[in-house]
Amino acid sequence: MSREEAQAVELPDAVCIVGPTGAGKTGLALALAERLGGGVVNIDSRQLYAGLEIVTAQPSAEERARCPHHLFGLLDPCQSVSAGTFAAMAEEAMRALAAQGVLPLLVGGTGLYLDALLYGLSPIPEVPDVTRQQLQAAWEHFGGETLHGWLEQIDPDYAARIHPNDRQRITRALEVFEATGRVFSSFHRQEGAPPRFRALKLGVAVDLDALTPALAARIEAMLAAGVAQEMERAFAACPRADAPGFSGIGSHELLEYIRGRLDLAQVKSLWLSRTRAYAKRQMTWFRKDPAIHWLVPGDTDKAVELVEGWLRARPA
């Protein structure tokens, strides 16, 4: 048996809880954890960062006390993380939970991270240094909006999932395309690859028009909780507006406010419109997966029923 095969065998069964931002994934995960003996593994790319707890809507201390939580607030905002690195960290967390007799609950809205963990990634060839340098120079000259536009033309699926301020991911996708002639998203899921572990996928579905007022209220609550001050502290510790940890929606708009480029009303308007658009893209992405069992927010009983049936059907 190869090392890769051995690792795949070791990965425990897991429940995946996905859906758009603000849909109630955390609440469902906590309810399942308490009723079925589970622990949460984060699969949201922004919630990996420390010092950004409010703006990335990380679980509160009270919520974390209700069950084990893994992969929240680990990285400095100046650090970058690849999908492959995330998958390795998540595997370790899953094994740690399973060793304690705890059911891993993979919770978040980053579809790429879930795919990397569940199906693995195709190897990406080395990119010549000159190509990387050319794309970095292009970013400095043209800016993020322009390069994001280039990415939309060649790889709209991937471009739809990342913010125009996400320098790391935009330049990486463009340099891989320049070097290989293949769009970056084609490496994310190995064609025809079976799942690397047994998984039940649950999705929290919401109507976008009904979700929008809740998103607006969440932004107001974050502001009242001191999210602007949180961003000031994070930016003081990592004074790079294009740092990987600051590329998420909300962080970018707040940095523009802190730097005097937007007023608060503009911040709230842009933050809400971009969050709504992101939620729509997430729903579009996850709706493509026929394996997801969709639930309405708060339907814990149905979720428990699905998980219990799935657990009973485990192969002997």
What is the architecture of the largest domain at the second tier of CATH? Answer: 3-Layer(aba) Sandwich
Calculate the mean pLDDT score and round it: 90
Say which CATH homologous superfamily of the largest domain is assigned. Answer: P-loop containing nucleotide triphosphate hydrolases
- Domain count, please report it: 2
Order of helical and strand elements:
HEHEHEHEHHHHHEHHHHEH
Q: What does the main sheet amount to?
A: 6 strands, parallel
Low-confidence stretches: 1-9
How many H/I helical runs?
14
Measured distance between first and last alpha carbons? 21 Å
Question: Based on CA inertia axes, which overall geometry fits?
Answer: globular
State the assembly state of the protein chains: single chain
CATH class descriptor name of the largest domain = Alpha Beta
Q: How many strands in all? A: 6
Helix content: 40-55%
Question: Which features would summarize this protein structure in a list?
Answer:
316 residues, alpha/beta, Rossmann fold, Histone, subunit A, six-stranded parallel sheet, 14 helices, globular
Describe the fold and architecture.
The chain is an alpha/beta fold and 316 residues long. 53% of the residues lie in helices and 9% in strands. It has 2 domains: 3-122 and 188-312, Rossmann fold (3-Layer(aba) Sandwich), CATH 3.40.50; 129-185, Histone, subunit A (Orthogonal Bundle). α3 links the parallel β2 (38-42) and β3 (69-70). α4 (83-99) crosses α5, α6 crosses α7 and α6 (129-142) crosses α9 (167-180). It is globular. Mean pLDDT is 90; it is low at 1-9.
